[in-house]
Amino acid sequence: MLLAHGNVPEALQSFLRDGLAISEHLPEADAANADYQYSLAAAHNKNGEVFLAQGNLSEALQCFRDSLATHERLAEADPANTDCQRGLAAAHDKIGDVLLAHGNVPEALQSFRDSLSIRDRLARADPGNMGQQRDLAASYHRVGEMLVARDEVSKAMIFFRDGLAISVHLAKADPANAEWQRNLAASYDKIGDLLVAQNDLAEALTSFRASLAIITRLSQTDPTNAERQQSLSVLYGKLGNVLIAQGNVTEALKFCGDGLAIAERLAKAKPHNAEWQRELSTSYYNIGDVLLNHGNRAEALKLFSHSLAIDEHLALADPSNVGRQHDLAIANERLGRVYKDLKYMRTARLYLEKAMFILKELDDAGRLEPQGRSSMAQLEQQLAALQATAGMTAAGTSGGKG
Asked: pLDDT digit string (tens) for 142-201?
């Protein structure tokens, strides 16, 4: 009836609730039947996925926790069963994903650690099983990502390097396997990011180049693969950023230009793809940053304005997305910084205050990540410097434009 009235989400949820009720009834009738328990866990998972797709994180979390409880009973009854253990690890991962979406990084980290512990045991028990090794590498990466979110970069590096070691082994064991190659490229890429955060630019450049070499080979075998083209664009931008930090403007411009060409092509092909639009914004920023460091403020300002326009659109389209809001704050800060250098102090203040307003709203809501707090501290310093300049201007000792 609900479906006939066009209420598809409620009809789907009703259908899944009925399925869950059946799955709950079967184990009650025969608690020792493992197949019934697996069906129950699967029913909780399906309901959780639907709630997650609808944005109902609380209900999704409860469903995944119910699934976890079922997997725990199965694993306790048959601890040597590999499938039970893998199901248990996957349940911890799903809970971690929802907790992360909730912004609960500490509990998400614990869930991913629980999953890692299980996957590590499974991989040690069967070292020749490539699937187990792949899952273990993925767990290392998840824990590493959580540690980065907690601004614990040095600890995160340990987990990412452990994941890299596995990825290297898998890629060497089966060079024709595109999945293993992609995973290896992703490992080099992430480690490059962490090396940049640690200001080890030479090693970061080596890591990014290793990732680029793999993605380039994969792209050549499948030139129409948009995902690989996007990866190329991202890597070109990262290499450009490192090169400009090292003072190599010529090569930096080449990489950033190549990245922008791909980003523009992808964004034009699918204008409603938010990730591709974000990558285009990043590409505009990358080239603008190179030009800014090369003294070409006017051209940099144009590119930063293009980047801001995209970030404003993405943030407006997804106001609950913390990453989008943070991107918008940084885009405003960037323009404020350039206008300050150009002595347009009042315009600079407008952009910097807009950036601060966005970050404070996130902070007041308890949704600001460590990176955002660092940005707030930098903004406070810039606004204080502007205030000091304004005081000097009022005293007649300095000049400024509007």
From this structure: 999 999 988 899 999 999 999 999 999 999 999 999 999 999 999 999 999 999 999 999
CA 80 vs CA 76, 84, 119: distances in Å: 9, 8, 13
pLDDT tens-digit profile of 18-59? Answer: 454 444 444 544 455 567 778 888 888 888 888 888 888 899
User: Phi-psi region for residue 247, left (φ > 0), alpha (ψ -120 to 50) or beta?
Assistant: left
According to the model, what pLDDT value does residue 186 have? 96
Nearest CA-CA partner of 231 in 253, 206, 208: 208
Q: Which residue has tokens 């809501």?
A: 365
Nearest-5° Cα angle at 29, 26 to 30: 90
Here the tokens at position 287 are 């080239």
Rounded to two decimals, the pTM is 0.76
Report the distance separating Cα 235 and Cα 393, nearest Å.
Answer: 44
Exposure string of 63-84, with b = 16+ CB inside 10 Å and e = fewer, is: bbbbbbebbebbbeeeeeeeeb
Closest by CA to 88, choosing from 49, 53, 41, is: 41
| Contact predicate 314/327, CB 8 Å | yes
Tokens standing for 34? 């493992």
User: Which DSSP symbol is given to 350?
Assistant: H
DSSP assignments along 162-205, one per residue = HHHHHHHHHHHH-TT-HHHHHHHHHHHHHHHHHHHHTT-HHHHH
**Mind listing the pLDDT tens digit for each residue in 371-387?**
778 888 889 988 988 88
Among residues 318, 315, 340, 319, which one has the least CA distance to residue 328? 315
The answer, yes or no, to whether residue 138 has pLDDT greater than 90, is yes
Mean pLDDT of the chain: 87
Non-local (6+) Cβ contacts of 149 within 8 A are: 105, 369, 370
